[in-house]
Every structure is written in structure tokens, then in C-alpha cells.
Amino acid sequence: MSNASRWTMKPMGMDFGHLPRRSEGVDVVFGKRVDREERQQRSGGERPPTLYCSQYARPNERKRLRKTTRQARPTHACRCSFHVIKNSMCVRLIDTHKPFVLVFLDPGELMSPSTKRKKFALLAIYDIVSRTRHTTPKSRKKFTPTNMQLPETELTAAETDLNVIAYSRSLYMVQNRGKSSFVYRFRRRQPPKQSEKKTAEMSFHNARVALLACGSFNPPTALHFRMMEVAKDYLERECNSTVVEAIMSPVADTFGKKGLAPAQHRFAMLDAATTNIAWLRADSWECSQTKWTRTLAVLQHHEDQVREKYQDSKIRVVLVCGGDVVDSFVRILPDGSNLWSPLDVQKIINDFGVIVIDRTDATPHKTLCTVCGDKPVPSNNVAIVIDEAFPNGISSTRLRSAIQAGKSIRFCTLDPVVDYILANKLYV
Ligand SMILES: Nc1ncnc2c1ncn2[C@@H]1O[C@H](COP(=O)(O)OP(=O)(O)OP(=O)(O)O)[C@@H](O)[C@H]1O
Ligand SMILES: NC(=O)c1ccc[n+]([C@@H]2O[C@H](COP(=O)(O)O)[C@@H](O)[C@H]2O)c1
């Protein structure tokens, strides 16, 4: 019997109270003091977006925790998803420091794992799970480390991505036996560190590359086109790469940024401006999706497309972005969740690569050091380029403000964009 088939994923038919359905994710925020009453109030009849673990948040512990994780963050937010496997709850915990830990958990007293971080994470999850009354002594009995396997067949594509990471990390199982609990650690069986290996082999040098810029382009500014030119120039001059094409992909309307003009216009402006530039084009795939697509998925889509188009499985798709986007890699949203999944960021850096165009007030190098933690920033896969010929603080916001004030924006962007905005009376 294959290992995968030993586990069956059951639908969420059990009484999980207020927990969201799987893949929705729950944010576990460490470090916030929320008293019991308030917590109950927050839970109310509705599903709370965030679960607070106040009892593990003493200030001195927070300080130590930050030291351990080497990441000073205002709160320690973890995104978890919940699954039911053989009557036990499986919690997947994702955070910046340890991107993915799979925990099979029975409520019970926990034996302290070796590091504070693990302890905090496990206790936090315990805190959640202990309020769900989901396990019975019978189900606990069934639960043994020997039959443990990820239910690969039942997972969606996105989750299967995560599984790879789970295997490259350690797997923890926590089980209650009488009064004490045990933490089991499993090593992945396949050769580890596949993505690191890929990074070591990968380099911009002599590579065939397609560039991808994702953004609102609301409207496109001179810098949006310029950043593609700067990235292409850098790769061809410094790395002897061949840039086969460069793609500008406007984000879908469902991204929900304030004041976002309809995707049809944002795409049309990019298309009009790039139509006579052989190596540069606008692509409508991302903005024609009904839901917002994470940048990693956009990269993956275009990797498939260009490899097929050029019949070359070695072509790389490299993300081009400004320093502000890199800074946003570690941004935590007001509800405590991560703007970018840390896993996505790791994959973008290691499996694709990024050309960062420096931008006023951005500190991409510092952010990348934070993101990479113990490891050095992979310099063969990430380059921060300063545009010395044309440094400026232009932004779409400034163009929109100028248009609203009735001022000219000519020469702040390409002429076809200006003409399109005027003809369609955008941003007035
Ligand atoms: N002046 C600039 N310098 C460097 N990168 C830039 C500049 N303007 C935009 N970019 C980059 O272009 C990409 C698309 O950006 P986006 O469409 O969000 O433009 P924006 O000017 O930042 O928009 P807004 O002002 O509406 O927030 C991002 O990677 C962004 O960092
Ligand atoms: N998690 C993610 O993949 C993620 C998060 C935030 C923004 N983005 C992308 O960054 C780009 C720029 O966004 P802003 O316009 O908010 O700077 C957009 O294309 C957006 O889709 C991706």
C-alpha cells in the first residue's frame, strides 16, 4: 500500500466550533494581550479571523523570542490551516521564521520542544485546539507515528506546493499519552534541500531569461517601462544573459487597491505603449482572472508559457520590481496576517530570482537579509540595481493627482498612455 493512501482526508463534518474551513487559514497572533472575555466576544457567533494567544505573550518572553527568530516583528503572526485526518486535527503552521510546520496534535500537556519558538508555536496551536473538543480517546489511540503520511492525493495544487516544503523541513507530531506528551520528528525521505540545490545551479549568468513585472500600473509611468529596460540592460551587460522578452502584467481588479481603474484600461494603456517595442509586451492573463492571483502563481504561469513558446525548458522567468515591493515581503497586515506568504517569498527568491530597482525610501537589501534569515541573500539570484541615469520618485499616485488637478502628465509616461488617458477621461 502506498504511503499516501494510508491517510484519508475527511470532510470537515465534525464539531470544530468557530474554526474556518480548511485552506481558509487562521492567524495566530503571539504577543497580544487579550483577556478571556474579549476573546469570547471576538469569537461571538462568527468565525474570527484571528486567534490570540495571550497567555504566552509575556514581554520578556517576546524579547527572547525575537532574539531567537532574528526578526523583530511587532507581533508573531502565524497562518494556520486546519484539516481533519483520521479523526485527528492536522494544523499547518506557516510563519516567516519557520515557513511550514505540520503538526498532528492531540490536546494534552506538552513536553517542551527544544527551542522557545517551537514551544510557542505548539502551545499556541494547543491553545486553539484545546478549545475545539475534536478528539476522543478512541481517535487518540488510532494515532501512531508509524502510519503517518501526508494526504497528498487530497490536496489542492497550492497545498501540494507547500507539502514539498513540509518535507524539506521537519515534521512534528504531538501526541498525548497519559500525562506526558511527545514530540516526534520526521525527516523527509527524499534528498533534502532541493530548492537550495536549484539555487546553487541557477544563476543569471549566460541564462535565457523572460522578465515579468507585476503591478497595478494605474496608470503606467515612465519608471514602469524604464525598470524593464534597466533590468534587461543589467542582465545583458553584467551577466551575459539573453532576455527573450519582458512581460508587464497588470493586477486584477479584485486586488482591491483604492482608486484602481478597471483592468481593461490598465491593460490597454500598457498594450498601447508597448505595441512597437519588440521585446516588451503587456499580458492580460493575470488581470482576466476572476480572483486576485499571488505573484508566485503569476510567475509559474508565465514560466510554463515561455518555456512552451520558445521550446526551451531552461528559460527562466525573473521578477522585476521596485524596492518598495521587496519591503512589502515582510509586511504584516492589521489583522496580523502576512501580506506575502513567506513560502512564496522563498520560492520567488530561490526558484525564480528577482531584479530589484532601487526606489526612494525603500531598503530592499535590509529586507532581503531579514527574509533570508541565517542564509546569505542568494546573490546569483537576486540583484538590486540602481538606475543612476534616471533616479526619480515618480509614482502612479503622483500622476493620478496631477490629472485630478488638471495638470499635464506628458513626458511622465509614454505618449500612448497619455493619449489613452485623455481619450477615455481616466482619473479625472
Ligand atoms: N519610481 C519607481 N522606482 C522604482 N520602481 C518603481 C517606481 N514606480 C513603480 N515601481 C515599481 O513598479 C512596479 C509596479 O508598481 P505599481 O503599479 O504599484 O506603481 P506605483 O507607482 O507604486 O503605484 P501607486 O502609486 O498607485 O501605489 C512595482 O514593482 C514598483 O515597485
Ligand atoms: N502575496 C503576494 O503574492 C502579493 C502580495 C502583495 C502584492 N503583490 C503584488 O505586488 C504587485 C504590486 O502591488 P502594489 O501595487 O500594492 O505595490 C501587485 O501585482 C500585487 O499582485 C503580491
Automatic annotation (TrEMBL):
Top class in the EC scheme: transferase
Record keywords: ATP-binding, NAD, Nucleotide-binding, Nucleotidyltransferase, Pyridine nucleotide biosynthesis, Transferase
Disordered: region residues: 31-50
UniProt EC number: 2.7.7.1, 2.7.7.18
Superkingdom of this protein's organism: Eukaryota
Biased composition (Basic and acidic residues): 31-45
Alphabetized SUPFAM superfamilies for the sequence: Nucleotidylyl transferase (SSF52374)
GO molecular-function terms, A-Z: ATP binding; nicotinamide-nucleotide adenylyltransferase activity; nicotinate-nucleotide adenylyltransferase activity
This protein's pathway: Cofactor biosynthesis; NAD(+) biosynthesis; NAD(+) from nicotinamide D-ribonucleotide: step 1/1
GO BP annotation list: NAD+ biosynthetic process
Pfam families from the UniProt entry: CTP_transf_like
Reactions accelerated catalytically: beta-nicotinamide D-ribonucleotide + ATP + H(+) = diphosphate + NAD(+); nicotinate beta-D-ribonucleotide + ATP + H(+) = deamido-NAD(+) + diphosphate
Gene3D superfamilies per UniProt: HUPs (3.40.50.620)
Cytidyltransferase-like domain span: 212-401
PANTHER family given in the database record: NICOTINAMIDE MONONUCLEOTIDE ADENYLYLTRANSFERASE (PTHR12039), NICOTINAMIDE-NUCLEOTIDE ADENYLYLTRANSFERASE (PTHR12039:SF0)
Family affiliation: Belongs to the eukaryotic NMN adenylyltransferase family.
Protein name according to UniProt: Nicotinamide-nucleotide adenylyltransferase
Species of the source: Panagrellus redivivus (Microworm)
Lineage of producing organism: Eukaryota, Metazoa, Ecdysozoa, Nematoda, Chromadorea
